[in-house]
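Listing S7. Sequence submitted for prediction.
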Amino acid sequence: MSYRIDTNCIHAGYTPGNGDPRVVPIVQSTTYTYDSSEAMGDLFDLKAEGFFYTRLGNPTLDAVEKKIAALEGGVGALLTSSGQAASLIAVLNICHAGDHVVASNAIYGGTFNLIYKTMQEMGIDSTFVAPGCSREELEAAFRPNTKCVFAETLSNPSLVVTDLELFAEESHAHGVPLIVDNTFPTPINCRPFEFGADIVTHSTTKYMDGHAVQVGGVIVDSGNFDWKNGKFPMFTEPDESYHGIVYAEQFGKAAYITKARTHLMRDLGAQAAPQNAFLLNLGLETLALRMERHCKNAQAVAEYLEKNNKVAWVNYPGLASSPYHELAKKYMPNGTCGVISFGVKGGREAAMRFMDNLKMASVVTHVADLRTCVLHPASTTHRQLTDEQLKEAGIGADMIRLSVGIENIADILEDLTQALEHA
């Protein structure tokens, strides 16, 4: 039976049998027993499916991976130990030293630094483009050795909406996949595969968890990209570490996610813990409900801030004044997320006074959970960027990132009002 997405938040990935636990159980075991050496050997040779070591697979992780794949509409998913690990493995699964990545310059600061610095040190070059660039500007960023394009559906924290269809069309015209970080909208508000994206990543630490109790990430494979187009020999030539297996032949549409698990996760070991997967699943069960409330509250807060004479500017795609409003209606018609960026008149000093005077909202290095919280990106999450890079990413010294929670909207507005009076 086919269910709608909010029902899948609860039921997808795990169907208990007669007498089984109703809730996905925590399988806190590193290893699994089999009746014969041959059965175990078949698992190691990828000839059979099953669990043999938790770094590569675990029943708790498996259930949650299947749920997230169902929510995004993909053929498979891989949980990782963090959102950063998901971004790293997603790219390294297809990029080697000497290859090139095209990426949005408005992505999360940690991801920007991963591509700009760490991958550069690994021999993977990169070119950054504005997410609102023209087709001609995007076209000019590609090179013969480009292997993927990386963007965010809704950028953190500048809230730029990427034109997914444009990025997908240009990626495919050059024979490479589009990787999209869909953390902020979640699959409740945007399903990038429906607009041509090939691979989706998330920091599950954010809305998917929703309670700030676990750090994690996930990679989801659409199963739609043609890995046999001649640009990706890692899928069409034998992998000698698995006795000559050819991923595209043996695993078909699931070639990408299978290689990510059996090759990259095997060697990098950035797996999620069963306990964290269990906690993540609890968050996923209420994801649809929470996203509805986050978006409703954020819209009210954005409209309030836009009318407040202490506020210099507000950026929220749900506002008609946002330059991304039309794209948001196209890709996220039911809402974007609960995050708003805005500036207080008086610059950095006024922003700091505002944040220090909040009572209910917290100043934390986190975003996108059920509690309202704030952060100053230029001095925290993006402080490793140069002034020029901050400007390109749309992050000013006065920017405040406000993550609107699911508390009563009247309490949120009262807290903002009294804090702005001190700004």
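Caption to Listing S7: primary sequence and predicted structure tokens for the chain studied. The CA atoms of residues 4 and 249 lie 32 Å apart. The first strand starts at residue 76 and ends at 80.
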